[in-house]
Structure formats: structure tokens, C-alpha cells
């Protein structure tokens, strides 16, 4: 009887696995064309649908590491096999496909035999596949010290369904993501980022801890323009700020070598307190060939870059955290503008960022809206001191529903050490009246306020995103205010081409309801509150050409007509109630 029960369970398990495979095969067929090119519109979404079908009841936070780890493994294996084939063809010229240095010289990870994708694919249906993947990850870390401690190695755990793991491996086997052509199209980068965003959405609040929406990151990068220098993120999550910074340089490379030059021009520094998120960041940078000093640890209590003075700082700190241990840092040297309250870390983040800014450095970061106006526990005084030190360059009020992790309204702060000039960087134009000798308008004693709350579009019932046109409008307003020449925005639907500079174009002007350049005296009159809505005023209403007197006479006559109609309706209702016995 016992053996009969086992046979029944095995039969049921086989049927269940067959159903999963059939479902997956149908989705593969529907996306065959996408798989062929690995670059068609919607490819990432189709791949996500197939991968998500394999998740079953597994928690998104757990499944995230399963899938992203396999994607990373496939990427480095593809790149390795392509280089191996190239070296094999060059044996007569002295090339050695078994020499790890032949791969490292081309910035390609050496993949030991037990970690090669073909080996794993051949074993995908075996019950030992979990242990084989763990061994593969361990072998890659062993032979590539830069990845030590980064890769997930818990695929053998009993709770992970090995059938689903094998099917996920089969799915990923059907795409090319690490060969030269796919790397040129950044196929894995697109898939990886799309998966990060989908996992963040699935995890909700917890997911937002590791992922900042791409549109917010892109806006920060487009405003700061980190062409070269030291780029720092004190709470880097999955490293989206760094990835977008490098992509920005590549997109504006003007044919100067793009990818190679981008890596040479910026140095990346970051810190992340969550260990699993830190691993995501390291993998995210590795798949794009970005070298970075990404440290694990608590930024406030164990600053791993204590002497760093960064040219650009980008960050999305967790909002309003109360358990940051501020009571143990009362006399910290970073609190130059006042001791932040132990119950809220917002102004601890602000002052940590200021502390790490280079003399000509600029920072852009996300904070909760309350940071612009709060006077609790000394926060108002700290904000006042930052303003009086002329560090606040620009404030941007964001629309709601941009973030997966919170519904708290958010804003962008931009701080600049020296508001008198622009650093000399490629791609920036300067010249003309009102510009100082170094290029750019002297903005000492002024703050730019931008109210972007009405921008963006809903992508589903709960999430909004800024469009490329929205990002261009905000960034161009800021650069025009800074004194850079700005190309007028293209017609809707036409983005800037790659490598396109700002060129000759528009200058800055206040726009009621959207932007205002305010002197510090005006900010003082508002009690050092930095909410853009207080400064930009109401949006200008288009004049309809009707004289005021005529309009008032017309509206008054319309009102009288509606009052007469309302009286008739009231009388009819009263009569009906009376007939029903409820009237007077």
C-alpha cells in the first residue's frame, strides 16, 4: 500500500511537471520571433511572463535571487564561450583557450568547466541540479576574486523546487545575452533592469528598498550630467544610479569610443547596508563591465569611504527612518549644520552627502516632501543653515505614485558647493550675457524651484512614470537656469538623438505654475521652507480674448437662468414629496 501511494504521488508529480512544461512551451512559441532577435520591443516583458510562470508559490523576494543569479551565470558563460571559440580558431597563432589570462585581458570572466552553461543545461532535469548550480557559482567566485562573496549559492536548499529550477534554466538557455552582439545591444542589461523593476513591484514596499524607478534615476543623471570624476551613492541599492550614469556618458559620447571611454572617465563609489542588495549591486555592475568600489556596511556608523570627496553624489535614501542609531552619533563631525534628530534620518543623509562633496561637487537626491518644510526636532534650523550657506541649488517637487516602496510624496534636492560657475566639462555650452568667465550664470544667492507634480503618466492603476519629454523639460529648465545653452525640446515623441549636444537654444525664464528662480531674501520670507508650490505660483491661464465686462455680464445672465431652473426643480421635488405624504 505504501509503494502504491508513492507511485501515485510520483505520477501526479510527473503530470504536474508536464503541465508546467506545456505551459512554458506555449509561451516560448508565442515569443519565438522575440527570442530570435533578443532586441524586439516587449522582449523583456515576454521573458518575464515565462519566468514568472515558473515561480509558482515562491515568494518574489526569494525567486528574485534564483532568476537573477541564473541570468548572470548565462551572461558570463556566453561571453566566455564566444572568446573561447575565437581563441580556438587562433591556436596556430599561439592562442591558448585554456589560459584564464586570455579572457581576463578582454574583461571576460574565466568560467571553469563545472560552471559552463552547456554542462548545467545537460543536467537541468536531474534532481542534483541545485547542487550543480551552487558548485558553478562557487567555482566562478574561486577563479574570479572580483566576484568573491557576490553570487547566490543556495540553489540546493530543499525548499527550492528543483523541477522549476531546471525549467528556469531551460528557459534562459534559449536566449543569447553574453555574446558580443547581445552585449552591444545591452540585452542582459535591459532584461536585468526590467526584472528588477518587476520584482520591486511584486514585493511592494520591501522591493523599493533595492530599486529606484528608472525615470527618477534618469532625471537625476540628466540634471547632474556626471561626465567624469568621482560618482558616489551612499545607499546604492542595486546600483541603478551608477548604471544610468555610465549609460548617460555612452549616449552623449559623440563617437568618442562610448563604452570604453565611459569606464575610464568616472570612478564609482558606493555603500549598501543590506547584504543581499549589495550582491545585486555587484552583479548589476559586473554584467555591464563597470568597475566600482561598492562596500557593504552601515553608512552612518561604518562609513567605508571616509575620506572620499565626490564630484557627483546621487542617492535615494530610505524615507524618514527612525531606527538609524542617531543617539550614538551626537557629536559626529558630519553634522556641520546641526545635529539631526534621533527619530528621523532625513537630515543625517543630507549632511552626510554634504560632507562628501568635493569643492566643486554637486549632489542630487530623493527625500520625502516633509524635508522641505518640517520644523520638528531642529530640522527647520538645519535646513535654514544649509540655505544660508548657499548650498541649495534646486528643488523639484515630484508627482505622486512614482515609487514602489512608498506612497509618501517625494522631492528632489540638488546641492552645489560653488554656485558661481560650471566646471569645464564636455558637451556643455556657455557664453553670452550674464555668464561668468568660467561659463554659466552666477547663481549665488538664488534657488531654482520646479513644480513637476502635474507631469508623468500612469503605467498601471498604482504606478506613474515620468516620460522622456517630462525628464527633458525638467532637466533643460535646470541647465538653462545654470547658464548652459539648451536645445529647444523636440516635438512630442521625438527624443534627442544619441550624442546630440545642447547647442544653440533657449535661455531661462520663470514659468508661472512650473518654475521660479527665487533670491534668498524671498526664501527667508517664506521661513526657509523649500516647497516649490510656494514660489512658482499659479499656472498662467490662456486669455480667451473675451473682454472682462462682457464675460461678467454673460456669466451673470447664465447664473440667473440656472437659478430659475433650480427653483423649478425644487418646486417639482416638493410637490412629489407632498403627494407621497412627506410634504408640508
From TrEMBL:
Ranges for domain N6 adenine-specific DNA methyltransferase N-terminal: 44-161
Residues annotated as domain DNA methylase adenine-specific: 184-544
Family statement: Belongs to the N(4)/N(6)-methyltransferase family.
SUPFAM superfamilies cross-referenced by the UniProt entry: S-adenosyl-L-methionine-dependent methyltransferases
Gene3D superfamilies: 1.20.1260.30, Vaccinia Virus protein VP39 (3.40.50.150)
Skewed-composition ranges (Basic and acidic residues): 1-23
Entry-linked InterPro entries: D12N6_MeTrfase_N (IPR022749), DNA_methylase_A-5 (IPR003356), DNA_methylase_N6_adenine_CS (IPR002052), SAM-dependent_MTases_sf (IPR029063), T1MK-like_N_sf (IPR038333), Type-I_RE_MTase_Subunit (IPR052916)
EC code(s) of this entry: 2.1.1.72
Xref: PROSITE patterns: N6_MTASE (PS00092)
Catalytically driven reaction(s): a 2'-deoxyadenosine in DNA + S-adenosyl-L-methionine = an N(6)-methyl-2'-deoxyadenosine in DNA + S-adenosyl-L-homocysteine + H(+)
One term of GO molecular function: DNA binding
Species this protein is from: Plasticicumulans lactativorans
GO terms (BP aspect): DNA restriction-modification system; methylation
Residues covered by region (Disordered): 1-32, 482-505
The name this protein goes by in its record: site-specific DNA-methyltransferase (adenine-specific)
Main enzyme class: transferase
Signal peptide: none
